[in-house]
């Protein structure tokens, strides 16, 4: 369980599709550096580009996107070891999720939060039974997620926050 002694200073989002890229944007808006990974670095860059083209753009300020680094599962998976929170948001196919989470388990550090932004797959069956480090459950309530100590740089503007009625970050915690 995360506490004030273990703040969220960096995140990794796995999957640069519609949800993944926008989740990374919300973390960047909070001033938290985000690593956005997909099959290849090119696919991740394209996902971020599509997100920036949305209206309204998911970034509160134009320079916030600079907090997102893109990469590929094929070359950058080992960099997950530096993330405090790893959030899976890949295609809704159980075999794909399981295979990726097994790879994540091999490179993540002990104590890293690993969660899934799934809408149709039960989280319990996504978790690898082969894990040598079984996860500690995070309560699945949005209030529990709001208590996670996300400590970004504080440089992101909050001027557009009032237009948002829900956050994919909360959805990711409760899905």
Give descriptors for this structure.
five-stranded parallel beta sheet; single chain; 33% helix
Structure report:
This protein is an alpha/beta fold and 175 residues long. The chain has one domain (11-174): NAD(P)-binding Rossmann-like Domain (Rossmann fold, 3-Layer(aba) Sandwich). The chain is 33% helix and 13% strand. Strand 1 (11-14), helix 1 (18-29) and strand 2 (34-38) form a beta-alpha-beta unit. Helix 1 packs across helix 2 (41-52). The chain is globular and about 35 Å long. The two termini are 18 Å apart.
What is the secondary structure topology, with strand pairs?
Elements: E1 11-14, H1 18-29, E2 34-38, H2 41-52, E3 68-72, H3 73-76, E4 85-88, H4 94-107, E5 113-116, H5 123-126, H6 142-146, H7 168-174
Parallel strand pairs: 1-2, 1-4, 2-3, 4-5
Helix pairs in contact: 1-2
Instruction: Give me the strand/helix succession.
Output: EHEHEHEHEHHH
Uncertain segments: 139-147, 154-175
Number of contiguous helices? 7
Largest sheet: 5 strands, parallel
CATH architecture annotation: 3-Layer(aba) Sandwich
The end-to-end distance, rounded to whole angstroms, is: 18 Å
Strand content range = 5-15%
Q: State Rg.
A: 15 Å
Q: Structural class of the helix and strand makeup?
A: alpha/beta
Q: What is the CATH H-level superfamily?
A: NAD(P)-binding Rossmann-like Domain
Work out the number of β strands.
5
Q: What gross morphology would you assign?
A: globular
Instruction: Please estimate the helix content.
Output: 25-40%
Mean pLDDT value: 77
Placed side by side, the strands forming the largest sheet appear as: 3-2-1-4-5
The CATH topology corresponds to Rossmann fold
Domain module count: 1
Q: What would CATH call the class?
A: Alpha Beta
